[in-house]
Specification:
The complex is a heterodimer of chains A (345) and B (127).
Chain A (H helix, E strand, L loop, with lengths): L1 H30 L4 E10 L4 E8 L5 E7 L15 H13 L7 E5 L8 E5 L7 H6 L7 H16 L14 H15 L4 H12 L8 E3 L8 E4 L2 E5 L6 E3 L1 H7 L20 H10 L7 H27 L6 H5 L4 H15 L1
Antiparallel strand pairs in A: 1-2, 2-3, 3-5, 4-5, 6-9, 7-8
Helix pairs in contact in A: 4-8, 5-9, 6-9, 6-11, 7-9, 9-11
Chain B lengths: L6 H16 L5 H39 L7 H14 L9 H16 L4 H7 L4
Classes of the chains: A alpha+beta (345), B mainly alpha (127).
């Protein structure tokens, strides 16, 4: 393993300068010898993923692109359930074929190369911040059409041919209950509302659906929205094979409505608009009540994810005030769970 | 012991320093963390003001629900409640359960995140 770690250190030492040189070699191969890399800028510093914006000039109209890269070019920090970057790139290509709006993938780089494990895609204009999409005047034309556009995009994702995709994790509702229950119990911080939600979910499982490609994190924050509506579906690293209702319900979880609780889909739309468009595009016509179970599981999962982030503080791994404070957001999901359980009981 | 300044007065003074002096001089991540820190102090002020009454109500609710005697702590009663829900001795249809959990969670959220949209919805009468 020593060489593995050594490679990681070398890649990190290179940082921006190293990446720029590796990108330039890649661009010359694809666009021609006059290619130059400009405006290379780190966009986010996620633990599991680096995202860089850059431009390729000297090739006529300059190309605005995005690099997604494992930290230091080596996939050692990605969580166990996240798919590899190569798989993510393959899913983007499959989604494009299915008519889902996604950025075109221009290149995939393997581990051990100059660039390390990474892929390059086009940069899409638009907004990802939920509050801006829900409140800014610029996105007023997008809001009334977004629920139906999300329904069509999800129908496309769920219709993807599983046999032609790379190997993906399988995870249905009961798998997820078991996984998150084990994490919650290990913290030994008992919360009666979570116990009630766990017991209710186990006692009322919905009839299973044929397994499909599930995006796994389909919500505002991971969607690029332009003034005219949905421009791109991003962040495929939690993709898996599972139940189509998981994706439909996740964007309904109140934590992703950014205060606009009255609009069940992402704070912008109503669920029937999404479900109608989903069915018109070839999906099953689900009833809104069939989404309740999955939305309840979604709120429970987000609550336990907030506990995981607080645990990073409690364990001493991350002493930031932000990690401490998120422990006081778990009660948001508890009230959402009670509002949902009151509706179904 | 002295209580002047009180804990609430001390916290308010630190919060004013963050909001009025420190935060305006910060940018980027540091400005974000300053805002989080200020919000944490607001939570603490609500905690000092609201927790004693909220805990008294929670304790009374737990005792009514579980029918236990005096002397049990909120922590041990909540563990018992969790255990009964886990084993199925209590469920969503247990009389008084949802009401107790809702009252307790509304009180918790009124301290933690009083602006949260789900809190307003929970307080609204059922339609």
């Amino acid at each position: 393993m020593a060489s593995h770690i050594f490679r990681a250190i070398v890649a990190k030492m290179g940082s921006a300068d190293h990446i720029e040189k590796a990108l330039e070699r890649w661009a010359k191969g694809l666009f021609g010898p006059k290619s130059r890399i400009e405006a290379l800028k780190r966009l986010s510093g996620g633990a599991s993923q680096e995202t860089w914006a850059f431009e390729v000039s000297g090739v006529g109209t300059s190309r605005r692109l995005i690099l997604r890269r494992a930290p230091g070019g080596v996939a050692m920090a990605r969580s166990s359930e996240a798919v590899s970057l190569a798989t993510e790139a393959a899913l983007l290509a499959a989604a494009a074929t299915a008519g889902v709006p996604v950025p075109a993938v221009l290149g995939v780089s393997d581990p051990g190369t100059d660039l390390g494990e990474a892929f390059i895609m086009e940069r899409i204009d638009g907004e990802t911040l939920g509050r801006k999409i829900l409140r800014d005047d610029a996105y007023a034309p997008a809001r009334p059409v977004l629920a139906a556009q999300c329904g069509r995009a999800l129908a496309g994702i769920h219709a993807a041919d599983l046999a032609s995709l790379p190997a993906l994790p399988h995870s249905n509702g009961l798998d997820q209950i078991n996984k998150y229950e084990a994490i919650y119990r290990a913290f030994d911080l008992p919360r009666p509302v979570f116990e009630l939600a766990l017991a209710w979910l186990k006692a009322n499982p919905p009839a299973p659906q044929p397994a499909v490609l599930v995006h796994g994190d389909f919500r505002l924050g991971n969607l690029i929205v332009a003034p005219e509506g949905l421009a791109s579906v991003l962040d495929w690293e939690l993709a898996h094979v599972g139940d189509p209702r998981e994706d439909i319900a996740w964007i309904c979880v109140n934590s992703w409505r950014f205060g606009q609780i009255e609009n069940r889909v992402g704070g912008f739309g109503d669920l029937d608009s999404l479900l109608d468009a989903y069915a018109e595009a070839g999906g099953v016509r689900f009833d809104t009540r069939q989404i309740d179970w999955w939305e309840t599981l979604g709120s429970l999962k987000w609550g336990i994810m907030c506990m995981i982030m607080y645990e990073a503080f409690r364990s001493g791994a991350d002493a930031s005030v932000e990690r401490a404070a998120i422990g006081r957001r778990v009660s948001e999901t508890e009230i959402d769970l009670l509002n949902l359980l009151e509706k179904v009981s | 012991m002295h209580d002047a300044p009180s804990p609430a007065e001390l916290i308010s003074a630190v919060k004013s320093f963050i909001d009025d002096t420190a935060a305006p001089q910060l940018t980027g991540h540091a400005a974000f963390y300053a805002r989080v820190a200020s919000n944490v102090l607001s939570t603490l002020l609500r905690e000092i003001e609201q927790r004693p009454a909220a805990e008294a109500e929670e304790l009374a609710g737990l005792k009514a629900l579980l029918g236990t005697q005096a002397g049990d702590s909120i922590q041990s009663l909540n563990r018992t409640l969790c255990e009964q829900l886990r084993t199925g001795s209590m469920s969503i249809s247990t009389p008084g359960l949802l009401e107790h959990l809702k009252t307790t969670t509304i009180a918790q959220l009124s301290i933690d995140q009083p602006q949260y949209s789900g809190l307003k919805a929970a307080r609204a009468p059922r339609s």
